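Standup notes
- DV: blocked on the single-chain target, sequence here:
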Amino acid sequence: MSNTRLHSVYRPLECRPDSYRGWYERANILLEQRSYQEALFSYDKALEYYPNDYWSWYKKGTILEILGEVRAAITSYQQASEIKPNNYWAWYNCGCLYLTGLKEYDRAIACFDKALEFYPEDYWCQYSKAEACHNLGEYERAIACFDKALSYRNKDYWAWYRRGDSLRLAGNLEAALASYQAALEVKPNDYWGLYRKGLTLQLMGAYQQAIDSYLQTTVTEPEDESICYALAACYSLAGNFQAAIERIELLLERNYKEYLPLLQSDSAFQNLQANDRFLALLSNYRDK
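- DV (later): unblocked, structure below
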């Protein structure tokens, strides 16, 4: 069906190769067929005859994004937004490319702000703006954006989870803990939610509660070295030296090159500096 449609468009182009409509329709069919390079050529031909066509610039940007040509895609979306400055999608897509493709967070925020002028209650735009603010270290601003996003989707796991990250890094540990707990109410056994909850409890000095949260992750990730290390640290800080050393033995057996320097320098293991078994373990692996 698509080949027939393509042929029906191509025949008039043989007679009128300067036809904007013919090149544009051909490009759309090629885009549907995922013939991206040919579609790109056809959109460029369409733009030769109608350079102010929003949709040709926008769809050209879409193809360039698919092909991984980030800066060229941004330029194309920017051309589209100049033609229709009140169109949400060109601004939003441009912001996403600045956010994830180039990590130019200030520019991403500027694009998301423009998109929000036309669609102020859009969850994804608020969430993406929050991510950009978070990555800039502007945690309070990020939290405000996550709050707006959650006002539109109050059961969204990722908004609660990432809000928790911003709160934790801003030093508001109790609020961060509540945010991770809200995320876990949406996805109760999620590894990352449980891990971050455990980390926050550890930072708060609630070591046994942190241990309980970390242990829940081992149901799905029993071999995870990061969790094993976190458990060793919490057991040490809580004064449960036997449990700490059992975890340390596992870590050193699996990856002593990475963990031996950490075990020697991390203040969480200061309590074990007089423990003969701990010192013997470190000595044995230093000699390898």
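- Follow-up: The mean pLDDT is 93.
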